[in-house]
Amino acid sequence: MNDRIDLAVWSAAPLDPCYATLGAPYHQPVAPTPLSQPILLHHSATLARELGLDGAAMGSPELLATLVGNNPWPGYVPHASVYAGHQFGTFVPQLGDGRALMIAELRTQDGRHLELQLKGAGRTPYSRGADGRAVLRSSIREYLCSEAMHALGVPTTRCLSVAGAADPVFRETTETAAVVCRVAPSFVRFGHFEFFYHRGAHQYLASLADHVIDTHFQHLAGQPDRYAAWLGEVVERTARLMAQWQTLGFCHGVMNTDNFSILGLTIDYGPFGFLDHFNPHHICNHSDDAGRYAYSAQPEVGQWNCAQLLQATLPLLPGTPEQAVEIAQEIYARYAPVYSQAALRGWADKLGLRELHDGDADLLNSFLGVLHRGKSDFTRSFRHLARVRTDADTPAIGVREEIADLAAFDAWITDYRARLTAEQNTDDDARADGMNRVNPKYILRNHLAQAAIEQAQQGDTAELDRLAKLLARPFDEQPEMERYAAEPPEGQRHIEVSCSS
Ligand code: AMP
Ligand code: MG
Prior knowledge:
single chain; alpha+beta; 6-stranded antiparallel beta sheet; two-stranded antiparallel ribbon; 12% strand; globular; binds adenosine monophosphate; binds magnesium ion
């Protein structure tokens, strides 16, 4: 490894080691495994700027070497952390960063703490016999989707870069290696706490919790009752995140507790997918036979995962064990109302409703029923709903084209117009503007990602670039990109996405 790197060339944000100072037993130093002749396939220019990396820095071979693990970030020792987790409901006592390495912690110019992690940079003590690598296909999907989710306004880990190399990686077939550099304020997961709790090493819970609080929930730092307050916020963030996933039709696919962020971020993009036609029972991960993580199950799974976190942090709560359980139950009880409120508000926004009235849930559900029965496209139908005029004589041009069950739809639209009129929400243009800011026109559909992947596998990143630019503005009309808003062509509707990545 070359450790003579000129930091000035990068002019990056300064180092801000916080997680690193926790040391053992939370993480271990690990040297990345180099990749041969890596190529930078894409980077997020906006995120690079936030990190103090300009175009010249992003074009430098030194930084690329660092972003794939061939060179260290100057002044920082990379490390892998240990965590556990409930995978598909079963507790696995030790998982950990099997192919992830934290390579830097930085302080941005506006004072935010951001951590950089490489995914796919080789084996770690937590690889459990696997190769520590990631393939190009899954790396491009993670890169595109995390940036797309950010643009959609969903809390998420982000991706600074995706780089590929010719090094072979063996999955169902032989593929090639890639490394993403993902960025988040913290990569601590529910599973980090579960690891120490379930092995009876409770003495390690408080330092980890205090690290999270001191770095990310500073308003609670040092308060005597901080743990309960902090856990309450985590539960509420998780509930609000689930509401955002539901209203965008985002399906995560692997909602194990090790894939749940202590900051309420979307993390670990694997076999995720956005709904095409609306089907509440949609399962995006074809290894999920029982549909544990089906679209409609997500809010409850989020709640179940919070229960696992609360179990694992019981030793932090005050009083006798019985009193601690009581406090945990009170915190747990906050999930349902926060979820319901956020979901109701989110769906009302999608319908263009300003107020919340009794009966709105029924109005929504009957619209979703029309979409479900007619296999209508979820994203397109909501987007086109903005074209409905409150004047009953003006036909709902655009949206009717999405609907199969027109009789049911026409009955629904009568109720919808009445509901809009009831809150004097009859300024159709203003309502449409608002709706177009919450109902995206462009989402990362599997077939779109697939086209970018297939090109990139041939060494052409034009489609990857086009898609990244498109998805950075998901709510804007981009007339020259109209075909990217279409439903998947017949034959590409059910691209199966597996856990293998
Ligand atoms: P995931 O399903 O991607 O969330 O991963 C579950 C666990 O398996 C995590 O501890 C990962 O670090 C680990 N893992 C997944 N793929 C690999 C791989 N190719 N090499 C090493 N560890 C892996
Ligand atoms: Mg994971």
